[in-house]
Amino acid sequence: MPGRGAPRLGLLLLLRLLLLGCGWAQQPPDSCQTLCRCLEAAKTVKCVDGNLTAVPPDLPPYVRTLFITGNRLARLPAGAFPAQRLPHLSALNLSGNHLRAVEAGALASLPALRQLDLSGNPLVSLSPLAFGEGGSPLEELALRGALRDQGVLLSLAAVLQSGALRNLSRLELADNGLLLLPAGMFTALPALRHLDLSNNSLVGLRNVSFHGLGQLQSLDLRGNSLGVLRNGTLAQFRSLPALRRVELGHNTWVCDCAIEDLVAWLKESDQVEGKEALTCAYPEKMLGKALLKIDSSDLDCSVPVDLPSQLQTSYVFLGIVLALIGAIFLLVLYLNRKGIKKWMHNIRDACRDHMEGYHYRYEINADPRLTNLSSNSDV
């Protein structure tokens, strides 16, 4: 029978070698067997759709790419990813969970972290110290659909302005319904190369500063509510030496006198991707007309361009008129002060006599003796 045992032993050895080559023979217990899928050869761990409520505490130390997606994580507390256990973690995907809070120090102790994806989480709290006090090596941050709360947007702006993420080269803020961006939000990102603001509701970029973004190569503004880009914004675009691609498709361009600067810039610039497809959305007579084919004779300049400043002027005049009316009223009162004083005294005396009459009748009606006396005298 030894002849039969040798092939069986060889088969077992071959199977063991295959298991070792696929990284399955030395899998850590617990998480990698019950909650996650661990691929040692690829240095990857996937904890997907497992109803996790916290980060697994026993992740293998070899992991470089970690997916914890589609779970039920409500918060990331401080020290959720200890550095001593995950010294090589460089890509962390936490998208599609139920994260509402990222607390101070939650992502501070990951020395190799370069990519972070928090997209698709209903964040309401983002600590300014989430990445620590000394700065983070993070290079790519994705927050698609995670900034629906205005407070979180302001917190993110504070984090970016603090310089904690000075190494960021890619920032994705798409699909957040943003109307306006906090002033100076991107001024402390000198390494930024790609900025994605697509599929929001941005109505203007007046308070957005691109100064200091000398490395910026691409800016995605597709799918917003931009009606015009002012000269100040266009001047910033011209001053960015590395900017090669600006995407402006699917915006509601208003083709009146204010758009002349944008049209001139489009005609002279090679930065805009697909500029031939940009068309007017308003007014109705210009609907669908290509911006590149507009000339000054096409524009209707009868409507005031700067409506906010016109309204501001109207409010000033209204205030002046009301102030004059008030001054005239006070002057009339002052000139007739004696007559008004005499009139007030007459009203007071009349009211006093009237009240005394009521009081006298009340006393008679309240005293039976006086009532009888009054009756007898009548008789």
TrEMBL record:
It comes from Limosa lapponica baueri. SMART domains: LRR_TYP (SM00369), LRRCT (SM00082), LRRNT (SM00013). The lineage of its organism: Eukaryota, Metazoa, Chordata, Craniata, Vertebrata. It holds the Pfam family LRR_8. InterPro entries: Cys-rich_flank_reg_C (IPR000483), Leu-rich_rpt (IPR001611), Leu-rich_rpt_typical-subtyp (IPR003591), LRR_dom_sf (IPR032675), LRRNT (IPR000372), Wnt_signaling_inhibitor (IPR052286). Residues 251-302 form the LRRCT domain. One of its GO terms (cellular component) is plasma membrane. Residues 1-25 form the signal peptide. Residues 31-65 form the LRRNT domain. SUPFAM superfamilies: L domain-like. This is Trophoblast glycoprotein. The chain crosses the membrane at residues 315-335. Keywords: Leucine-rich repeat, Membrane, Repeat, Signal, Transmembrane, Transmembrane helix. One of its GO terms (biological process) is negative regulation of canonical Wnt signaling pathway.
